[in-house]
Amino acid sequence: PLGRVVLEKVSFRYEQDRPLIEDLSLTVEPGRTVAVVGPTGAGKTTLVNLLMRFYEVTGGRITLDGV
Asked: What is the pLDDT of residues 2-23, one digit of tens each?
């Protein structure tokens, strides 16, 4: 089935000297549900924005079905 999401060593920062996400790796298989929880400012919305390509990762890569 289609829908495999892979984050490979993803890093992101809004400002050069302030990393927000560093070296995050995650695989979500098709049909699975994932909840992202954490305190304010932890990067939950940023993670979703990266998946939607509103922002480009500063390191690593995000693929959907290998693309």
From this structure: 999 999 999 999 998 999 999 9
Among all chains, which residue has been given the structure tokens 């990266």?
50
Q: What's residue 7's pLDDT?
A: 98
Cα separation, 21 vs 49, in Å, equals: 12
Spatial strand order in the sheet of 59-64:
18-28, 5-15, 59-64
Residue 61's Cα: distance from chain center in Å? 9
pTM over 0.90: no
DSSP secondary structure letters along the chain: ----EEEEEEEEEEETTEEEEEEEEEEE-TT-------STTSSHHHHHHHHTTSS--SEEEEEETT-
